[in-house]
Design brief:
Elements: E1 3-7, H1 16-29, E2 34-38, H2 44-48, H3 60-64, H4 70-73, E3 75-76, E4 82-84, H5 90-98, H6 106-112, E5 120-124, H7 131-139, E6 142-148, H8 157-170, E7 176-183, H9 191-203, H10 217-224, H11 235-253
Helix pairs in contact: 1-11, 6-7
The structure holds adenosine-5'-diphosphate and magnesium ion.
Length: 264
């Protein structure tokens, strides 16, 4: 059984890509076979895992437009994670897909052709709620929403939750909303905590633990083409490891995910 997890938030800079790369490395570290799918035409996930999008012959664009099979575009990366890369061509896939019936199901159908090759597929959604994100949510068993702990973090959350609920009604009744993952968290002030309490209150959205602390190691890691788990141990890597362990216990044993409120 393959579990597909979409990481989505139409806001940019909330650590979607960082979460996909770091969580993938952590799950691979737990012995899972992990595939990540870059659905952002910017190709940041592709780049951060050591591949230059400008030099690639084929990518998720060819998969979504029916020119390649997903197996043919999968790349290996340093940390034992397999990658379906994105290039700027993906910006044009949206227009092609919009002309097609069943356009929301294209990624789901492609992932299904992989059979049991992977235990977990993580989908890095772009910062929009367009047809690419709809493909990610339609292909997914569950969605995780990284939320940067800053003022106005809640802007757009309502719209995202409405999209998730529409996907549940129309293209993917089995989609589970795991909750918000606090990112860029600063434990030294009460501000991050207040923001999270506000979002949880307003939307009844579960907030997961552990929060991912803000640390400079993430910027250093993505510039080096490796994830934050590859280098010296640090509190960012440790938080993603803990999240990976919680997810595995949730998927394998049905254990409840730890919530932020419960760990205060
Ligand atoms: P998104 O994919 O949502 O646009 P990214 O994952 O690209 O967001 O992250 C945006 C920026 O924030 C990147 O420069 C990344 O290195 C940085 N970043 C992400 N998580 C953290 C963190 N926990 N601490 C510090 N910087 C982070
Ligand atoms: Mg991104």
């Amino acid at each position: 059984m393959t579990t597909v997890l979409a990481v989505a938030n139409q806001k940019g800079g909330v650590a979607k890509t960082t979460t996909v790369a770091s969580l993938a490395a952590a799950l691979a570290g737990l012995g899972r076979k992990v595939l990540v799918v870059d659905l952002d035409p910017q190709g940041c996930l592709t780049f951060s895992l050591g591949h230059n999008p400008d030099r690639l012959e084929s990518s998720v664009h060819e998969v979504l437009t029916g020119q390649s099979s997903i197996r043919d575009v999968v790349l290996d990366t340093e940390e034992g994670i397999s990658l379906v890369p994105a290039t700027i061509d993906l910006a044009g896939a949206e227009a092609v897909l919009l002309m097609r019936p069943g356009r929301e199901f294209t990624l789901k159908r492609a992932i299904a052709t992989l059979g049991d090759d992977f235990d977990v597929v993580l989908v890095d959604c772009p910062p929009s709620l367009g047809v690419l994100t709809l493909n990610g949510l339609t292909a997914a068993d569950a969605v995780l929403v990284p939320l940067q702990c800053e003022t106005l973090a809640h802007r757009g959350v309502g719209q995202l939750l409405r999209t998730v609920s529409e996907v549940q009604q129309i293209t993917n009744p089995d989609l589970t909303l795991l909750g918000a993952l606090p990112t860029l968290y600063d434990s030294r002030t009460t501000h991050s905590r207040d923001v999270l309490a506000d979002v949880a209150d307003r939307y009844g959205l579960p907030v997961l633990a552990p929060p991912i602390p803000r640390t400079v190691r993430f910027a250093e890691a993505s510039a080096s083409g490796a994830t934050v788990l590859a280098g010296r141990t640090n509190k960012g890597a440790q938080a993603y490891r803990e999240l990976a362990e919680n997810l595995v216990a949730h998927w394998d044993e049905g254990r409840e995910l730890r919530s932020f409120a419960a760990c205060e």
